[in-house]
Amino acid sequence: MYLDEKEQKFLQETANKIRRKIIDILEDAGSGHSAGSLGMADVFTALYFHILKHDPKNPSWEERDRLVLSNGHIAPVQYVTMAYAGYLPVKELKTLRKLHSRLQGHPHREALPGIETTSGPLGAGLSQAAGMALAARLDGRKHRIYCLMSDGEQQEGLIWEASMFIGNNKLSNITAIMDRNNIQIDGSTENVMPLEPLKEKYEAFGWHVLDIDGHDIEQIVDATNEAKAITYQPTLIVAHTIPGKGVSFMEGDFGWHGKAPTRSQEQKALAELRTMKGKIKSEHE
Amino acid sequence: MFNRGQKLNKKLFNKNIEKASLRDGYGEGLVLAGEKHDSVVALCADLTESTRTNAFAEKFPERYFEIGVAEQNMAGIAAGLGVSGKIPFMASYATFSPGRNWEQIRTNISYNNSNVKIAGHHAGVSVGPDGATHQAIEDIATMRVMANMRVIVPCDINEARKATVVASEVWGPTYLRFTKEETPVITSSETPFQPGKAEIFWESKSPRCAIIACGPLVYNTMLAAKELEGEGIDTIVVNNHTIKPMDNALILSVAKRCGAVVTVEEHQVEGGMGSAVAEVLSSNLPTPQEFIGVSGVFGESGTPDELIDKYGMAVKDIKSAVKKVIKRKNGH
Description:
The complex is a heterodimer of chains A (285) and B (332).
Chain A: H1 5-29, H2 34-39, H3 41-51, E1 66-69, H4 75-85, H5 125-139, E2 145-150, H6 157-168, E3 174-180, E4 183-184, E5 187-188, H7 189-192, H8 198-204, E6 208-213, H9 217-229, E7 235-240, H10 263-275
Parallel strand pairs in A: 1-2, 2-3, 3-7, 6-7
Antiparallel strand pairs in A: 4-5
Helix pairs in contact in A: 1-3, 1-4, 1-10, 3-4, 3-9, 5-6
Chain B: E1 19-21, H1 22-36, E2 40-44, H2 54-59, E3 64-66, H3 71-82, E4 87-93, H4 102-111, E5 117-121, H5 139-144, E6 150-152, H6 157-167, E7 174-177, E8 182-184, E9 199-203, E10 209-213, H7 217-230, E11 235-239, E12 242-244, H8 248-258, E13 261-268, H9 273-284, E14 289-294, H10 304-310, H11 315-329
Parallel strand pairs in B: 2-3, 2-4, 4-5, 5-7, 6-7, 10-11, 10-13, 13-14
Antiparallel strand pairs in B: 1-8, 6-12, 9-11
Helix pairs in contact in B: 1-6, 3-4, 7-11, 8-9
């Protein structure tokens, strides 16, 4: 679908609103994953507000596109985006990680309608996306499966089992989006366990691979459109992102992978995000 | 004597009793389930012939998925199919599935409540010459400990077939355990089978011990019960095919009547079916119990009979456990 300037601006502002809410609820929860959640705000906004075929009022609609979040630890960005999209009341976001909440620390399918699968233990999303894609193919349904994954979890062997299977079965109804933010808990991915060349690896497994700026909403939309047009192989979109995007003291710092801001850090972060007025500057501009 | 209502194989105590493998029951059951329900699909990790998935694969090629040697991926794909309205059956050797892919089963199938049926083949030491690497004797424990998971251990080919068909019709994650060796046909096609409902296969006049068994060792248990009756020791034999959810009412009722229990399984004693029975008894009706099973060691290469004998699951072992527990009951 074509993205005009007005909508682009709306999506950028929405992404900023989502970032602010992420900071707010993570501080409230006292624990959780800040860096990846902020880094993927633009991708989630583009998906829920433009790309996905879905109906927040009918989360079990059979024709809906499926969004599988493999790296479940960035659940805050999914919950917040889903709330603004209409899946749950925004005020419920305050219950994140608390007793009796539908918003589990890592997403649970049975807790919250709209969550397609339970995730958290890394490397498992792509296999499940493959199962959903096979079911869609068997039933002759046209919906797509979007699998979001991290770069760090590419170190799991299971990812490559799934990648091999999906390539071999030419499951072109799968679009995988990798958050290539170059960090994991123990440091930089290329120091902990080098992943490159990712593009060539996936291509060798039968995938069409695109590299994009994961903060450029137009590029995100264009890449998913290109993936839809390819009917003979699956597509991987490597979305290059800045972990902690939008908050200067978090950006690029792996220390923020699994940490929540304190009250004073929250205030500083919110002040920064407010002055940005929705315009996240791309590093690639 | 035989419980007549069970319609067991009339030739059960004949020397040349018919033998068949439980895996053939799985293969036949899978085809029947596929015929009954369009949503049944099958997955296998490079063991299609060995797990008898091949008949389904030939009959319903579009509903069969070859995963290759990748058990974790198989669990994930099955989980995705299961939350998309399909009824996936995934098969491999039990040492690999649910052995290697335990966490994928826990998170993506069990916690996720995906309607997947896990068929663990070649379970127990009776796999024989392949040795301990291929002899799953921990799978009942690792599966029954999961919330949401149903665990069924059929005793022969007929029960294996019925359990497979029934698994496609009862909703929810289910583990089915099968052995490789051809073992005696204990039941008939008319023997009742209902998940969660244990059956009394043998009952002497004044039973002093309930022998609760599962899997093909139900046969050794029946032989033991018959010999014991000849020696004046009356028993009850229960085919406890569903380890979870277990038929607590029947277990408690036979324990109450007999006052002593022996459990028999081709599995580690720690965490297995006997442990499940002990959990029910100790919190409701503490009863002296002896455990027949593998006792904290790995198996090894050998013939099935040699191994069953070496690891203490032969008829003589069951008989002496019964005598021992009756003595304990009587305070000796």
